[in-house]
Write a structure and sequence with these properties.
With 327 residues, the chain is α+β, with helices and mostly antiparallel strands. The chain has helices at 15-25, 38-43, 75-80, 88-94, 99-104, 107-111, 124-129, 158-165, 268-274, 281-292, 305-326; strands at 8-10, 29-32, 51-54, 64-65, 68-70, 168-173, 176-181, 201-206, 213-220, 231-241, 248-258, 265-266.
Amino acid sequence: MLRLPSFRYLQPRSLAEAVRMKADAGPEGMFVAGGTDLYPNMKRRHQEPKVVISLMRIPELQALDGWNVGTCVTLTALSNLPTFQHSAVATAARLVSTPLLRNMGTLGGNLCLDTRCNYYNQSYEWRKSIDFCMKKDGAICWVAPSSPRCWAVSSSDVAPVMVAIGAEYRLMGPQGERIVPASRFYNNDGINYLTKQPDEILVEVRLPAPNGWDTVYHKLRRRGSFDFPVLGVAAWIKWEPGAGGRERIVQDARIVLGGVASYPQEVPEAAAALRGMTFGADSIAAAAEAAYRPSKPMDNTDFDLSWRKQMTRVYVRRALDELQRKS
């Protein structure tokens, strides 16, 4: 049985108190919200904080103010909010894991989800038997042994949607507050996958109000629940009526892939294939092909990597077909 290591548990009641507690704990302290990612990682000795600072009793992190959402709102609550219930944000939240874990897991936790890999997400003894990997305690990436970097995969469902819609994140730390676009919150690096500093708290997500655009999210996984995505597709389209009033012209677009890189991967080539075009079968096929080319899944998660690459084309087309029907 995997057991948690010993640690001290703190429950601040304000952001200032949480930041102060983290400063006192130093590198041995970590923030936690729902804990559905951190605690299993602690059991496997991926992270071993001596001080765990819970964020769940800070009222500001539970707040909802128009299109601004506190990051300790649970995934279940987020998916059921009337404002977001029929949006891609709610769809992505609803597709995370299982109902029990969504009841505990939070928006902020999913946005900051640790990158995953078949060689990393194992018990300590299993990892020790292969001499560990670069992401934890080792010096080599077993996915690509000649690579100087870690290729662990971003497996968040909500993050690709946030990048696609152009959301902004509010962070608070010892140096004060800063606002970061979702697209600049993530690094394409399996180890240093966030631009957030360890002593910063992700406080709030600022969502853009719907204004002539729509978004969908599609997820590929082996089972209909529980599993992390081996491919996620978030498609964002802003359109305008064509000359005849019946056709839709794509004014702007964003296609973001999850589960194929160490960050939510925006594909500008796919957006370029749609922008300024009539939103129809030809432009959708061109965008799906453009998204397929730069998609480079690695052999570090479920399914054959070449098949997963093929599914990029299929799932981008499905996502865009759904948006076309909604238009």
